[in-house]
Amino acid sequence: MTRWHLRLLLLFLASFSLSLVVHLPASLALSWAGPALQRSGLSLAGAGTSGTVWQGQVDNITYRRLDISRVAWEWQAADLLRGVIGTALHVSLPGAGNHQLGADIEFDPFGGQLAVSSLQGSADLSIASKLGLVPPELVSGELLINIRSLVVENGVPIAIDGQGALENLGNLYLPGIPLGSYQARLTTEGNTLVGRFSDLDAPVETRGEVTLAPDGRYQLTARLRPRENAAPILVSGLDFLGPADNDGFKTFKTAGRL
Questions:
Q1: Under 8 Å CB-to-CB from 38, ≥6 apart: which residues?
Q2: Contact 89/78 with Cβ under 8 angstroms?
Q3: Given this model, what pLDDT does residue 116 score?
Q4: Residue 149, strand partner residues
Q5: Is the pTM of the predicted complex or chain greater than 0.85?
Q6: Per DSSP, what are the bridge partners of residue 150?
Q7: 3-state SS track over 79-106
Q8: Using 50, 70 and 90 to split pLDDT, how confident is the model at 145?
Q9: Listed residue (88, 85, 84) closest to 71, CA to CA
Q10: H, E, C per residue of the chain
Q11: pLDDT, greater one: 99 or 258
């Protein structure tokens, strides 16, 4: 066999192997990955799967206590030429409001870097309790996300650019008292992630900043001042922060490590 024939044979085998992967049913691939997915907290019991490994979707899955209506994906062939694995991902969540999240994701298998772009959508804040981030039903409201870029390296976020908002915030321990809406601008300064936030329409005027360093250390500083329409319980709650400054703001600070 000449070198030219060998190259043709290798090209044929590579094309044939890629074709098999591209057309592999998504249901078969997920059944193989089932044990690993279950260890990560993802349950496929009762799930419906359609499409292929390259382009498909899975309906009615559960992550911890969070029900997910649909996850759809489409791998980007052009990204393979750049040595990265890329996919367009779309997630639909159940409940009122037709909440959905979509993003383009690229993973560098050699450098271990994950890049997320065009992360947009909304979610009910109950997602936080279902993921175990806060006690059950502690907060209510809606989360809005518009992240232009997010870079994660070895499991640590190292860069971000975007914005987010919390709308119609409520708290289990303050029934019937609306806490308003808030916005945040997310940027990277040096090697530190910075989020500057303020209220949009809230009974307590809020201005603040939160930072996250590469080692997981965070700092949060907020200045708070009750408005005239603030409920008495909110005003008295701010008394625990000590005296106000000359502008009537009280300062709250906290720090720790994730």
A1: 44
A2: no
A3: 94
A4: 117, 161
A5: no
A6: 116, 160
A7: HHCCCCEEEEEEEECCCCCCCEEEEEEE
A8: very high
A9: 88
A10: CCHHHHHHHHHHHHHHHHHHHHCCEHHHHHHHHHHHHHHCCEECCCCEEEEECCEEEEEEEEECCEEEEEEEEEECHHHHCCCCEEEEEEEECCCCCCCEEEEEEEEECCCCEEEEEEEEEEEECHHHHHCCCCCCCCEEEEEEEEEEEEEEECCEEEEEEEEEEEEEEEECCCCCCCCCEEEEEEEEECCEEEEEEEEEECCEEEEEEEEECCCCEEEEEEEEEECCCCCHHHHHHHHHHCCCCCCCCEEEEEEEEC
A11: 99
Q: Is the pLDDT of residue 242 over 50?
A: yes
Rounded Cα distance between 15 and 183, Å, is 49
pLDDT for the residue 67: 83
**Do 26 and 34 contact (CB within 8 A), yes or no?**
no
In this structure, are strands 42-43 and 48-51 parallel, antiparallel, or unpaired?
Answer: unpaired
Strand 139-153 with 192-201, pairing: unpaired
> Which residues are CB-contacts of 185 (< 8 A; sequence separation ≥ 6)?
163, 195, 196, 197
Instruction: Please tell me the distance from the alpha carbon of residue 256 to that of residue 258, in angstroms, as a whole number.
Output: 7
How many Å from the N-terminal Cα to the C-terminal Cα in the chain? 60
The span from the CA of 234 to the CA of 202, in Å, is: 11
